[in-house]
Amino acid sequence: MKAANRTESEVRDLAVALYRDHRDYLLAIARRHAAGERHAEEALQEAFISFLRAFDPGQGAPPIAWLTTTLKRECWRKKRKEHFDRKSSHEPECQWEESGSLVESIPSQAPGPEQRVLECDEARRRLAAIKPDQRTALGFFAAGFSYKEIATRRGWTYTKVDRCVRRGRAGLRAVQAMA
Question: Can you list the alpha helix ranges (DSSP code H) found in the chain?
Answer without folding.
Answer: 2-33, 37-54, 63-88, 113-128, 132-142, 147-154, 158-178
